[in-house]
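Why does residue order matter? Because the sequence determines the fold. Keep that principle in mind as you read this record.
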Amino acid sequence: MSLNCGIVGLPNVGKSTLFSSLTAQQVAMDNYPFCTIEPNRGVVEVPDPRLYLLENIYKTGNVIPAIVEFVDIAGLVQGASQGEGLGNRFLAHIRELGLIIHVVRCFDDDDVAHVSGALDPVSDIEVVNLELALADLETIENRIEKNRRFMRSADKKVSTQAAGFEPVLERLREILSAGNPAKDLDIESGEQLADLHLITTKPVLYVGNVDEDDINGESDSYNAVRVYAEEHGAGCLPLCCKLEAEIAALESPEERLDFLESAGLHESGLNALVREAYKALGLQTFFTQNGKELRAWTIEAGETAPHAAGRIHTDFETGFIKAEVFHCTDIFDLGDVHLVREAGKLRIEGKDYVVQDGDVVQFRFAAHG
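Structure:
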C-alpha cells in the first residue's frame, strides 16, 4: 500500500511553498518507526474529527492519527523526459508515488516569473502531462523490445505469454505517442501492466494555487483547471499557498484558528488537501483503543478483518479469530460502549468481514509460539 503523494508542477507555481506549509507541523516519528524521512519528504496527520470525538468518550490521553507522506518533487521543465532540468531523477521519483498532486498556477504576480511568460493553467497542465506521457512512452518502447525477445523464447509458456501481451504494449504505445495517459487503455491487464510502473496510470489531484481573494475558486483561471480535471476524471481543489504559508507560520493552534476566522474560513485548505489525497489514494480509516491509546489505522478500501489486523501486527493476522466491531457513529449517538453493546450495535465478525471506514474494532487472535 503506497501512502505517499508527490507534489509536482512547473517551476514557480507554489510547490515548495505548499510542501513547506504541509510539513510545518510535521508529526513526531516516535509512533511511526517504519517511516524514513528525507529532506524532501514529510509525514502529515490526516485531519479526522471522529478521532477526537472518540477521545472525548474514551479519554485515553494518547491519540495517534493516521498519516500521509508527501514528497516534494523538483520542478518539471519542458524536455524533462529527454533529461532537461533534473530529468530522469524527477521522473524516477514520480514512479514511486501513489498519488500525483499537480499544482497549477492560477494567480497573477508580477514579482513571480511565469515559466512560459503568461498565465495559462491548462497549457501548463498539458506541458507536464506530455512530459509524463513521453517518459512512459520510453518505458513502453523498451518493454516492447524486451517482450519481442521473450516471444522468440524456446519456452512455450514464456513465448505464449509474451505474444499475448504484445497487443497491449502496442496499444499503449499508440496512446502515449498521442500524448495521452496510459490510464486511457480500457482493459484489465493485471500484474503485467502494474509491473511497468507507468506514471500516467496514477491517480491525479489538481491543486489550483489561487490568489488570496479567490480562496473559493471562482476565478476563470481556477475554473479552467476544474473543468480540465472533471474531463479527465481527476480531483481538483482551490488552495492559496501563500495564505496557507502564513497560517502554518503561526505558532499556536489558537492563533491559526483566529487567523482562519478572520479570513472567513472554518479550516485550512491544507486539511482539505490531506483528506482529498487520502481519499484519492483509495484509503480509509478504522480505530482501535486499549484504554491507554486511541489510534487511527490506515487500510485500503475493501480489506478484510484479518488484513486490517495485520496492519497492527502480523501476529494479529496469522492468529486471527474474530473481530468485535461497531461503527463510530453508534458510540457518538449512544455515548458509551456499554450502551452500544446493549443496543445490539456491537457485532462479532469473522475472516470474510470487509472493514468499513469509521469502524471501531477490537481483534481477538491466538498467540503462536
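Residues 32-39, 83-88 have pLDDT under 50 and may be disordered.
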